[in-house]
């Protein structure tokens, strides 16, 4: 309860700004505009007013607050579970994150890349493995019982194409032509037809994992959804965005389904713009420090996500790609440690941020990569492999290992690490244990995968 | 025989023909769906000069030599494009052709084949462009010739592993896609048109293509090498013979599932609701009767009542962008790759071998991409001198002017009224003296954006 109170204040502050900005210049047009902020509006009405403000220019009465605003308000349950997906692009070398440093086979396969036998810190669940020094913040999360590690995750007959394997992970199955993402299909079950924020890509283009067939989802570049027009500013600009929504509302009443779908996109775009308006151009005052320097945008976007969740915005699934390139075919020693450290430190800061904001019980973070890398190094790096790594992080997460480390003495026919867990089983667990949805409705052949206990 | 009032039927073909009014609205839809939209005045002119048949034929049987109107595009340094070499210039090369051509349907059909035989980045802009040129050359088929050319097209041989498909190690990549995506479909009402054995046997028949690798150039000298070809007997669709790649193509086109697949897929590029069974069967007969020629089928679709009476379609992002440029009589002036990518369609980069997903062109992200594209194009000519702008221009006048900016597209009454409401609201908000001309200037720039991004302009 006290927690809700805090969120209330945060939301109020943010939404007040939205109403104030949107209301700027409007009263002279339509006297019945929303009351100025700070007048004791309820949490629900703040949200309603802020997203209705633009539309109201052309008559809230005609739109009757529309389905969209109502949908957003209803969707904004402060206790709804949230899943954040973080992608490590390129196929991270899981054998360097958790390395069997004293295994003679490892030392033989990795003459130049092997970590020192006593490098980093011990992995508490398997005495053969040690955390890379750059993964210290992962070690801390794991020791605190907030991280489940899958040390060799993948699928049968692994595909070593970045494109194909990543696609499998994104769609949650091994179908090359599946076009909806696994989180998108989850949103079809738990989402609504009128809330694009429920599935939010934070890096500019829609994550394929969020692609849906019917309910709307959204993509933003960072936290803002800025639109501008050359030679338009001030009141005519604010009114212009209201007019985009107005034209969308007009089109939505058309008998023509093609016109209706175009109108829907315009309406959703303006809704998203309004929802994110309080954050536009504003610094987020994160309660914890995120890594600075190169790649700091990643932490900034994560802190923005935490701020949006704290404001009660109805986000259910979010997706973002970590900075750095983990496709380390050559010169792995040079880039790997700094990229890993940046990703791990930013992700740990995000978890601390959620905890500081009282949100940690609502959010689970999944960190994944399309495959692991070949145990035997090439000249100065590693080629595409099979079994890779995934990490599930959160205060509600059961920090026990998913699958086991298979060791290096029995590799698969392509000399790659054998997978000891299937990513689809991991998805099934998240869907069932975190969202309380039947995974059979989301993941093909769901019944055939073992479910690790991830939550509780 | 029945048909809706005003629909005639082709003599004996069983295909209804639209016989309602062919005015500017219908001409505009035809120009958008079979091309990249009208240049200013073009829709009205087409409706004035031709009846339906004449208008369709002006696109499907263009007279005269193809030429590109207007100045050639240049890069940021004022130099001509280098399509084979400069990053992104392959896309600009094609966009420029779409914008400036006097034979728009050639490019529109090439774009359709690019989606149909979707080939993504093959690490050679030259080979990508040569595939696009193949699609231009074979824009009206006949389909068997198009399929044969595509099957041994260098970009396709790289993209779907044709170069890796040898007697010793058959690779099934192209064999599967040629049946599933290009000619037959994965499954239809009658079940699966081919078996996994057919995939393996097709792969064997398709063996034998090779190329040489040259450092700093890539693959060159694509050729058939009999030593790599499996000359043994294969059984495909129940027929046995010492088949090669030409037989592979022939057997696919001759398969009983092909005509339905072809007709339905081609139809879907022009009309958003599937054909009735009767129309579909009539189109299949037309296709087979003309030895799998494409033109008669396309012409029948473009004259079908469903084309003019049915619902509108969301324009593909490339069509939307090119159409705005044509409406402005503008050219390619800068790097459009990232903008069309934001809008959801980048030439030579389809998301996978199945092509783009036409059912999902618009979301918040791609809407923003379209907005950015429109802002780029409108921004070239944004008004910025309030000293010369009218301080008294009325709302209706302002909307008329903004529509004129885009070549007077037809918009719905609801949209026009919405635009006028906006124009009125801005006028009301201009209370101070200095705002009278300034706000009207800003309003005109904004109205242009509102027209370009309206639901009406996103669809045809």
Descriptive account of the structure:
The complex is a heterodimer of chains A (456) and B (460). Chain A has 456 residues and is an alpha/beta fold. Chain A folds into 2 domains: 7-226 and 289-448, Alkaline Phosphatase, subunit A (3-Layer(aba) Sandwich); 234-275, no CATH class. Chain A contains 14 helices and 11 strands. The longest helix of chain A has 25 residues, at 332-356. Helices cover 51% and strands 5% of the residues of chain B. Chain B has a two-stranded antiparallel ribbon. The radius of gyration of chain B is 25 Å and the shape is globular. Chain B starts with 7 loop residues before the first strand and ends with a helix. Residues 1-5 of chain B have low confidence and may be disordered. The chains are: A alpha/beta (456), B mainly alpha (460).
The main sheet of chain A comes to: 8 strands, mixed
Question: Which residues of chain A sit in consecutive blocks of at least 5 with pLDDT less than 50?
Answer: 1-75
The computed structural class of chain B is mainly alpha
The CATH architecture term of the largest domain in chain A is: 3-Layer(aba) Sandwich
Strand numbers in spatial order across the main sheet of chain A: 7-6-8-1-9-10-5-11
What proportion of the residues of chain B is helical, as a percent range? 40-55%
Q: Portion of residues in helices of chain A?
A: 25-40%
Our estimate of the beta-strand percent of chain B is: 5-15%
Q: Biggest interface: chains and residue counts?
A: A-B, 60 and 53 residues
Q: Give the overall shape of chain A, derived from the CA principal axes.
A: globular
Please give the alpha-carbon distance between the first and last residues of chain B: 29 Å
């Amino acid at each position: 309860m006290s927690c809700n109170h805090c969120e209330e204040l945060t939301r109020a502050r943010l939404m007040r700004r939205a109403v104030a900005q949107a209301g700027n210049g409007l009263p002279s047009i339509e006297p019945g505009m929303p009351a100025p902020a700070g007048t004791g509006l309820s949490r629900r009405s703040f949200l309603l007013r802020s997203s209705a403000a633009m539309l109201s220019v052309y008559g809230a009465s005609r739109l009757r607050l529309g389905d969209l605003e109502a949908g957003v308000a209803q969707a904004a349950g402060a206790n709804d579970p949230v899943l954040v997906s973080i992608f490590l692009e390129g196929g991270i070398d899981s054998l360097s994150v958790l390395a069997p440093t004293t295994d003679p086979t490892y030392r033989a396969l990795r003459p130049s890349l092997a970590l020192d036998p006593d490098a980093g810190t011990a992995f508490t669940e398997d005495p053969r493995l040690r955390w890379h020094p750059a993964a210290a913040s992962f070690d801390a999360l794991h020791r605190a019982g907030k991280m489940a590690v899958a040390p060799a995750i993948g699928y049968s007959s692994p595909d070593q194409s970045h494109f194909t394997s990543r696609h499998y992970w994104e769609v949650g199955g091994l179908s090359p032509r599946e076009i909806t993402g696994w989180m998108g299909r989850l949103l079809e079950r738990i989402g609504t037809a009128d809330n694009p924020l429920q599935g939010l890509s934070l890096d500019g283009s829609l994550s394929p994992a969020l692609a849906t067939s019917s309910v709307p989802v959204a993509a933003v570049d960072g936290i803002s959804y800025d639109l501008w027009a050359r030679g338009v500013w001030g009141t005519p600009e604010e009114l212009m965005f209201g007019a985009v929504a107005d034209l969308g509302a007009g089109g939505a009443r058309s008998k023509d389904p093609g016109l209706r779908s175009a109108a829907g996109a315009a309406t959703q775009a303006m809704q998203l713009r309004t929802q994110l308006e309080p954050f536009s151009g504003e610094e987020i005052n994160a309660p914890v420090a995120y890594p600075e320097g190169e790649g700091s945008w990643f932490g900034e976007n994560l802190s923005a996500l935490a701020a949006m969740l704290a404001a009660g915005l109805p986000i259910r699934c979010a997706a973002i790609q970590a900075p750095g390139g983990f496709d380390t075919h050559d010169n792995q020693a040079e880039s790997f440690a700094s990229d890993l450290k940046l990703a791990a430190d930013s992700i740990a800061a995000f978890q601390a941020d959620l905890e500081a904001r009282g949100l940690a019980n609502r959010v689970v973070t999944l960190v994944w990569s399309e495959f692991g890398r070949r145990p035997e190094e090439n000249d100065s790096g590693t080629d595409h492999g099979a079994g890779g790594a995934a990490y599930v992080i959160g205060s509600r997460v059961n920090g026990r290992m998913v699958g086991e480390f298979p060791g290096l003495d029995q590799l698969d026919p392509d000399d790659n690490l054998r997978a000891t867990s299937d990513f689809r089983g991991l998805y099934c667990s998240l869907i069932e244990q975190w969202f309380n949805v039947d995974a059979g409705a989301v993941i093909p052949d769901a019944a055939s995968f073992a479910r690790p206990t991830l939550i509780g | 025989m029945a048909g809706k009032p005003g629909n005639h039927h082709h003599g004996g073909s069983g295909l209804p023909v639209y016989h309602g009014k062919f005015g500017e609205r219908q001409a505009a839809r035809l120009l958008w769906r079979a091309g990249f939209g009208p240049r200013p005045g073009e829709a009205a002119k087409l409706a004035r000069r031709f009846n339906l048949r004449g208008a369709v034929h002006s696109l499907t049987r263009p007279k005269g030599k193809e030429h590109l109107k207007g100045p050639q595009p240049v890069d940021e340094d004022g130099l001509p494009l280098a399509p084979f070499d400069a990053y992104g210039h392959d896309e600009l090369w094609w966009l420029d052709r779409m914008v400036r051509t006097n034979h728009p349907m050639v490019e529109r059909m090439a774009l359709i084949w690019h989606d149909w035989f979707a080939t993504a980045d093959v690490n050679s802009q030259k080979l990508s462009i040569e595939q696009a040129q193949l699609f231009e050359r074979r824009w009206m088929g006949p389909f068997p010739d198009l399929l044969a050319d595509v099957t041994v097209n260098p970009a396709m041989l790289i993209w779907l592993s044709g170069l890796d498909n040898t007697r010793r190690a058959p690779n099934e990549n192209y064999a599967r896609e040629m049946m599933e995506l290009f000619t037959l479909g994965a499954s239809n009402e009658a079940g699966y048109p081919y078996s996994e054995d057919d995939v393996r046997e097709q792969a064997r028949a398709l063996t034998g293509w090779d190329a040489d690798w040259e450092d700093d150039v890539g693959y060159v000298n694509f050729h058939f090498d009999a030593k790599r070809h499996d000359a043994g007997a294969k059984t495909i669709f129940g027929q046995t013979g010492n088949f090669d790649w030409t037989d592979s193509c022939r057997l696919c086109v001759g398969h009983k599932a092909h005509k339905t697949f072809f007709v339905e897929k081609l139809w879907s590029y022009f009309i958003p609701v599937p054909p009735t069974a009767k129309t579909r069967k009539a189109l299949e007969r037309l296709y087979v009767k003309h030895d799998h020629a494409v033109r008669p089928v396309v012409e029948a679709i473009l004259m079908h009542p469903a084309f003019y009476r049915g619902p509108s379609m969301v324009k593909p992002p490339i069509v939307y962008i090119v159409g705005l440029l044509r409406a402005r009589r503008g050219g390619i002036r800068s790097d459009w790759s990232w903008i069309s990518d934001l809008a959801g369609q980048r030439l030579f980069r389809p998301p996978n071998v199945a092509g783009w997903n036409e059912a999902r062109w618009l979301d918040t992200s791609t809407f923003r991409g379209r907005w950015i594209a429109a802002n780029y194009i409108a921004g070239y000519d944004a008004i910025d001198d309030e000293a010369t702008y009218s301080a008294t221009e009325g709302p209706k006048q302002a909307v008329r002017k903004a529509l004129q900016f885009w070549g007077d597209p037809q918009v719905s009454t609801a949209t026009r009224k919405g635009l006028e409401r906006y124009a009125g609201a801005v006028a009301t908000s201009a209370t101070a003296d200095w705002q009278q001309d300034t706000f009207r200037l800003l309003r005109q720039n904004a109205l242009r954006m509102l027209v370009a991004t309206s639901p009406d302009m996103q669809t045809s």
